[in-house]
Specification:
This protein has 331 residues and is an alpha/beta fold. The chain has 2 domains: 176 residues, Rossmann fold; 141 residues, 3-Layer(aba) Sandwich (Rossmann fold). Helix content is 34%, strand content 14%. The chain contains 10 helices and 11 strands. A 5-stranded parallel beta sheet has the order 9-8-7-10-11. Strands 3-4-5-6 form a 4-stranded parallel beta sheet, with no helix packed on it. Strands 1-2 form a two-stranded parallel ribbon. Strand 10, helix 8 and strand 11 form a beta-alpha-beta unit. 32% of the residues are buried. It comes from Psychroflexus lacisalsi. This is Glycosyltransferase. Pfam families: Glyco_tran_28_C.
């Protein structure tokens, strides 16, 4: 979203290509922009460790075929609409052989247990098809991604463009104790939702809000101390986060960037078996910024550990676009 807003501000004509909930979110935020609907990129995950990776591997061929179909759609659209730059948000089918194509990606190296080396090698091959890789992060030592954004196997030029967040810091009364923002694949999303509802019902004196991160799903009735939202647009969620003392969310990189830019106190619950999220949460805990718990072992008493952690410092976050981004792009 901040990349789209940046180019619109520069006077560029921007089109959106995506599918599913991601496309719906972007259409809600930018209703005036042209849209190209791509093939479904949905991945089915297992809730158990070994089968988690096995299921991903078995879906690999299908995902590759969908990427090829996306590439055909994008080539056709780009030719008809005189597109001169394609920016892929880590979507490997968003590329052109004839138009400058860049990929936004912090994950140049994989953390996937026994599959780390093989998956990192395959990942590098996909990245090397692009003209450039834009890493949504600041320079060391103010980086968030750690070792994930470093790979000797990625040979194309890489450029750090600054931390990306759709949110901005707003001074509002802090009247919410806990805000849980749930995201990620099923059935793991639903499992976390049930866990958090059960946990926060016990804390009857605490005002809690849960944003479920779902579309086209029946809403839940509010409880005495818990308010529910299926989903919110960026402005609404931005306000809720700024009104909150503590945010509980996944440790996906987008969430990490959002919380860092807002300077929040955060408790992370990484998606089970996702090595990237587990690495980021462990790294931030080691840096004494934010604690975390596995989804299986989460208890509300774990939140008491927050007093030992600093939270994020928004003043240290070097956000997109870093100085020199536009002149370099034009060159």
């Amino acid at each position: 979203m901040p990349v789209i807003r940046h180019f619109l501000k520069q006077g560029s004509k921007v089109s959106i290509a995506s599918d599913g909930d991601a496309l719906q979110l972007l259409k809600d935020e930018f209703p005036e922009l042209d849209v190209l609907e791509l093939n479904s990129s949905e991945v089915v995950y297992s809730s158990s460790g070994f089968f988690f990776y096995l299921k991903l591997i078995l879906q690999g061929h299908g995902l590759k075929e969908r990427a090829k179909k996306d590439e055909i759609l994008i080539e056709s659209y780009a030719e008809k609409n005189h597109v001169d730059l394609i920016i892929s948000d880590h979507r490997f089918g968003a590329i052109s052989k004839t138009i400058k194509s860049v990929i936004i990606s912090h994950q140049l190296k994989f953390k996937a247990g026994l599959f780390s080396r093989a998956s990192s090698s395959l990942n590098a091959k996909f990245h090397n098809r692009y003209d450039e890789v834009w890493i949504p992060d600041a320079e060391v030592p103010f980086d968030l991604s750690g070792v994930l954004s470093h790979s000797k196997q990625v040979k194309v030029p890489t450029r750090r463009i600054g931390v990306l967040s759709r949110f901005s810091k707003i001074e509002l009364p802090v009247d919410i104790d806990y805000l849980a923002v749930i995201s990620g694949p099923e059935p793991l999303r639903t499992s976390l939702e049930k866990c958090l509802i059960a946990a926060f019902q016990v804390l009857s004196s605490k005002k809690t809000v849960i944003v479920r991160g779902v579309y086209n799903t029946e809403s839940l009735n509010d409880l005495p101390n818990i308010s529910f939202y299926n989903h919110l647009n960026s402005e609404e969620l931005n306000s809720l986060v700024c009104r909150t003392k503590v945010v509980i969310c996944r440790s996906g990189y987008s969430s990490v960037m959002d919380m860092a830019c807002l300077g929040k106190k955060v408790f992370f619950v990484p998606t089970p078996h996702q090595g990237e999220q587990e690495y980021l949460s462990e790294r931030l805990e080691h840096m004494k910024i934010a604690p975390f718990s596995s989804q299986e072992n989460f208890k509300t008493r774990d939140l008491e550990n927050l007093k030992f952690y600093s939270g994020f410092n928004s003043e240290e976050m070097h956000q997109f676009p870093l100085p020199g981004f536009l002149p370099t792009l034009e060159g």
